[in-house]
Amino acid sequence: MSRPELPIGTWGKIRTEKLGPRRFRARARFRDYDGKTRDIEATDTTGPAAERALKIKLRDRTTPNDDEITRETHVSRLAELWIEEITTEERIAPQTIHRYATSVRAAILPALGNLRIREASVGRLDRFLRDIAKDRPSAARGAKVVLSQMFALAVRHGALPTNPVRDTGRLRKPRRAVVILSDEHLQAVRTAIRDWQRPVPGKPGPRHTGDLADVVDLMLATGARIGEILALRWADLDLATARPTLTICGTLVFVTGQGFFRQPWTKSDAGYRMVVLPRFAIGMLLTRKLDAADNPHDAIFASRRGTWLSPNNVRRQWRQARADTDLAWVTPHTFRKTVATLIKEETSTKNAAAQLGHSSEEVTATYYIAKPVQAPDVSDVLERLGADRNRRPTPRGHDDDHG
Q1: Less Cβ crowding at N or C end of the chain, within 10 Å?
Q2: Is 390 domain-assigned?
Q3: Lowest-pLDDT range of 135-149, 317-331, 381-395
Q4: Torsion over CA of 285, 287, 290 and 295, rounded to 10 degrees?
């Protein structure tokens, strides 16, 4: 019967022999990471010393290179190598890498970093994700994406036969009712912005600009994301046609150490789109063009210093404007959902998806279009309540109770 193969990275029985006066040799068979079994030996002045020297050699041999991934690699090291890989490949946007790194640092390493890859079982990873999902479902979904890619790297390096993250349970995405703005809400939004922009006598600091009102108008005119609106340039606007258009072809992104900058592509291929502008937006843009100061980015919405106007600043301005109102529930995305719902009601879900830059009508219908709750069909039951409505009343003179 042939001798069973050693597992990779392990050695067999250590044998010691005397070679001469004060000279001993310790030997063992070791199965290397290339699958080949080799004889490894070490010598010293005594048998125990030779055995100790051999064990050091064997341990050094089982320690992978810094960039090698094995079953014994710690999850923290796997995360580090994965971040290095996606950063070097430059396939993923810098802001996405920053988001992944934040998930690694804030969620994954504190709970799993000291585990070895072989210890990251499906059950352990599933419990980790579900614990996060109890309070932070979106953080749990983000952590699952990161872990899946990390362990895919481990599989590619042969450290694992399969990716354990794939067999973890599905994380349910909580469904929230889509809430949109009514005509009364829109009027309240514009009133709140006008009141906020009105100068207050004796109040120090620069006057509020008209940026917030114009940004809101353009979001309502296009259904674009706030980052897409603030990345628009005058070159993207074509007013010299019967139906003026705006080409949405970039977005503002934030990268640590660099701040906000314009990314010359949208969130997806479907996001690169040309939209026809309604009349109220054309008038606003013409007025803005006449009053606009030049800036190095050709930005429609620039800060006082000529830099890109950041989404954070716009959100902060809107929070200030709505402070004394009951509009705390209104966010920039509410305008986008309002646009989607109106287009769907007046035309189709297909048109709404195209306007918003979605590749799938399902995404638009599920997350952006307000729908009434469907009541059960109990019309046959309710019909009983109308059974007597056409029956002619009995004349009083023929009432049996008075006969």
Answers
A1: N
A2: no
A3: 381-395
A4: -40
